[in-house]
Amino acid sequence: MGICKLQLTFHMYFFHRCREKQRKEASRLQTVNRKLTAMNKLLMEENDRLQKQVSQLVYDNGYMRTQLHTVSTTATTDASCESVVLSDQHQQQNPTPRLQRDANNPASLLAIAEETLAEFLSKATGTAVNWVQMIGMKPGPDSIGIVAVSRNCSGVAARACGLVSLEPTKVAEILKDRPSWFRNCRCLDVLSTIPTENGGMIELLYMQTYAPTTLAVARDFWTLRYTTNLQDGSLVICERSLTSSTGGPTGPPASCFVRAEMLPSGYLIRPCDGGGSIIHIVDHIDLDAWSVPEVLRPLYESSKILAQKMTVAALRHVRQIAQETSGEIQYSGGRQPAVLRTFSQRLCRGFNDAINGFMDDGWSVMGSDGVEDVTIAINSSPSKFPGSQYNTLSVLPSFGGVVCAKASMLLQNVPPAVLVRFLREHRPEWADYGIDAYSAACLKANPCAFPCARPSGFPSSPVILPLAHTVEHEESLEVVRLEGNAFSPEDIAMSQDMYLLQLCSGVDDNATGACAQLVFAPIDESFADDAPLLPSGFRVIPLDPKSDDPYATRTLDLASTLEVGRGGVRRADEDSSSYNHQSVLTIAFQFTFESHFRDNVATMARQYVRSVVGSVQRVAMAIAPSPLGSHLGPKSLPASPEAHTLAQWICRSYRIHTGGELLQVDAQRGDAVLKQLWHHSDAILCCSVKLNASAVFTFANQAGLDMLETTFVALQDIMLDKVLDEAGRRILLSEFSKIMQQGFAYLPAGICVSSMGRPVSYEQAIAWKVLEDNDSNHCLAFMFTNWSFV
């Protein structure tokens, strides 16, 4: 009887579990069905809009044909094809000026608002702008949505539409809070609010934005924003600049900014059946590109950059919050999503503050040392900073102010995503351990008195600990742990592990027109929610190729070569048919200082940034893709005398120990030996052998570099024990004495790991001692045969 009851209980439990799974699956399918229905509706509307656009183009084409035919038949002296075309375009782009409106009359502002609404809707759902879909942006229930950019219109414009699982009022609340998602927004002030009779709201806004580099002036906007409901239940937020042509009150002056114009833009938020919203976003602005140096104008003339920085960013932010609200995203570590977003915003804001160095924040520029490549700015008034990170830093006992060293350069043939990914994964290649230790010690009660370089380098490779990432993984927040190492008894403050809070974005190679960025700031072990942050980092922004002119070198200092109004960069004697893409790299590093060490820290910061610039230039040269598209760039044959000598030692030692020939053809000349070793089909690598130190690679042939997915620049940053898996390390350890006594040993098939973390299988490996001419030990050589990525 008891067994029957137990069986019955088990069956009932199993039955309820199955029913629960069925309910969850049914609910999931209903959600997916609603998404597909809404997306299908969106695609049908987009198809209707495209049909209207085609009809409009056909009509315009017929009209132009008629005008051209009329001109050719009348043959008047003052009318030509060019004049008719230009006059027609002039009429379209420069409509009849409006009558000057009373700036203080609410009815005038309402008239401006209604005109803005009509023009915005014609862009969002009509054919007022010729939209071209961005490559890589495919519609679907789980995609970001439909993203398009403008073609042949005044200014730059971008449009996006997508589906989110939030109600329209919540979506509107998120989008109106522009500083929370637009990383380039410095401040947004609502100076006046006027309710309308139809239940809407008119707001007068003043917005300041950051400049993306140190080489251009920041922009500000004076706009009218209109929020209202349409008859179909849709919610609209539209906005445009108030200028002399539109009428309305005059905006506040700002000496450190260039006034940009926002053409009718905004958000159309429509409720969906069953919940959620369909969002249409239009951004249309004129950034006055003619006021910046010619080489930088693509930053201000690119609709793709506007789409990534503003339009897509808004849609992604709404989707992120929607998924966090629904519980679809779970973060580890006990941190709330809002707290992690705040960390990301503070890192970006602090980095932007450092790049721009606004005087009203307390920044002042120090005199140069005769070379204008690095700019040094000082701020001793942390209370004037809008960000809380500087206010909290001011209470530290070591705080006397902030020194910022910054520079910008032009990169040629260097994809932004590849460069930033390399800087993230190979920090010891460009960073200085002593400087990192000084920055971390400034957060403690007993900081180091003065920073200095440490020639010993990093004691071990930094460890990257993921913390959070956005829905589409275009941005990740992480903690970097740097192992502590006291170089001397007086350096005991550096003996503890150091931590950096790091934000990495734009490392996806498929992100069209996106900039890549790596920003980091030292944090202490507590990692409190209000921890002080002093961000430093790198930003790489692609320049759309507007012309085919190559530039002088792969990396150039822009600060000394730019000239406003005309191309100040000298041309190259390079082949114009070569692979040619430019991007702008901006570097900024911030350090705290005690008052009596200000000049010393400023000198150190200048020298350190110059050192980082030199390292980045070498990295850029190494990773620049070849015309064939290799993601690590061309790997040229090393030509130094040391390389020729090492090649002879490797082949001679292999012959002595194994009795066989490493190379198929006997070559007497050193350059022939090196060339054949370089092109050997198997991966051949050399690593150092030192007591009480990890073995690091010192040489690799082309196959070895391909297997490790690295370059000569980063090769010495890779340790042998990080490449071999646990089984491989055990086998090598057991065979090490044999290698040292007999001179070589064969290792069985196994798995190793590339520098990018990809597993690599090999059929066999052989290790042998490389002897110098006097038969003393020089290094260990390894040859991995028939290797391939798993």
UniProtKB/TrEMBL annotation:
Keyword vocabulary terms for this entry: Differentiation, DNA-binding, Homeobox, Nucleus, Transcription, Transcription regulation
Coiled-coil regions, chain positions: none
GO molecular function: DNA binding; DNA-binding transcription factor activity; lipid binding
Gene3D superfamilies linked to this entry: 3.30.530.20
Domain START per the UniProt entry, residue ranges: 102-330
Keyword Transcription regulation: yes
Pfam families linked to this entry: MEKHLA, START
UniProt xrefs under SUPFAM superfamilies: Bet v1-like
GO terms of biological process kind: cell differentiation
InterPro entries assigned: HD-Zip_III (IPR044830), MEKHLA (IPR013978), START-like_dom_sf (IPR023393), START_lipid-bd_dom (IPR002913)
Record carries keyword Heme: no
PANTHER family per record: HOMEOBOX-LEUCINE ZIPPER PROTEIN ATHB-14
Protein's recorded name: Homeobox-leucine zipper protein like
Organism: Actinidia chinensis var. chinensis
Taxonomic lineage from the root: Eukaryota, Viridiplantae, Streptophyta, Embryophyta, Tracheophyta
